[in-house]
């Protein structure tokens, strides 16, 4: 029977990788340096594998150490979730959930979702990380996110994941009110404008760029960042961007932004709920997912 590493050994290894030295790891763990060194050596002996190397740049993982650490992150993330769910079940602490959202769900459905969720679970803890789905997938796979909501992704990116369609949002080209190009009626008229688009490597925004700039879109000078930054640059610096129409119709953004009435039809975007098929969801995560499903059905997307 294979002997499993002790938790203290795993914590010592992860701390050394994170902090880059035995001394810093010992301080973080409130242990002695010899104790951390001993735990690391015992782990390497147990695994019969060198996990780290020591040099002038500090302690760095070997290739085997990198592989082991990537799996270890998943294990510790799952352990944290298991403890959190047990505490919530015992009502001795609040449940916690970490969600990745793109700008569209943040500015449309999130406020009502959190309002209902906090009313049901007032002691729960919610953390949101904003980004396009291409940025959120690595965090979801590593276990740092419980689930994500973003633009629908192709099936080849879904290994180990479940994708559930939530809603479809119509899109439009937008600019600040009074922009010199605000009355243009063709995308061709906007070719040479300054554009600020969300960062992505797949899906809806890529299709728009191909439609807008043709095969040369990869060579077009386009500023990119978060969806929130795109709105800021459109309002303050006269950039053009694209947005879901419900955002542009909201009370706040309707004060500053307008839809450019181009004759071309901007493709709608399908948004999905994405979560791991390999890790169990905590109770509080399942409850929050249900709140998002409900709000997507009730929200007016036209």
UniProtKB/TrEMBL annotation:
Pfam families: HTH_1 (PF00126), LysR_substrate (PF03466). Residues 5-62 form the HTH lysR-type domain. InterPro entries: HTH-type_LysR_regulators, LysR_HTH_N, LysR_subst-bd, WH-like_DNA-bd_sf, WH_DNA-bd_sf. Transmembrane segments: none annotated. Keywords: DNA-binding, Transcription, Transcription regulation. The keyword DNA-binding applies. GO terms for molecular function: DNA binding; DNA-binding transcription factor activity. GO terms for cellular component: cytosol. Belongs to the LysR transcriptional regulatory family. This is HTH lysR-type domain-containing protein.
